[in-house]
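pls design
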């Protein structure tokens, strides 16, 4: 583990109290900042997207969305399906719009997979 290049974590927050989940998140950030890549599989989408640079949404083992974690977290479709937040807007769009990052630069859209 001393020379690890990749740390794989499968559901590190499952069954844990919120305070412990927060500590787990801090540990994952420390690992990542040390230069070790982290592959995180997590049903707690809110936590996973806050910790990640990029994300993938899976349904029945199939990738249905992928993109920048910040953009995924802001996506109405992801918020409704995986974070449990009701959207202010409902749409039948198959593609999500390009969004703007906090520094007003354009970022890649979240991509729905077919």
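designed seq:
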């Amino acid at each position: 583990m001393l020379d690890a290049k990749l740390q794989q974590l499968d559901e590190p927050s499952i069954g844990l109290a919120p305070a412990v989940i927060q500590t787990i998140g801090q540990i994952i950030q420390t690992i990542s900042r040390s230069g070790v890549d982290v592959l995180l599989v997590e049903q707690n989408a809110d936590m996973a997207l806050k910790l990640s640079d990029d994300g993938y949404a899976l349904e029945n083992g199939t990738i249905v969305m992928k993109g920048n974690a910040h953009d995924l977290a802001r996506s109405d479709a992801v918020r409704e399906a995986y974070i449990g937040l009701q959207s202010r807007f409902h749409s039948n769009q198959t593609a999500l719009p390009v969004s703007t990052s906090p520094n007003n630069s354009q970022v890649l859209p979240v991509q729905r997979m077919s």
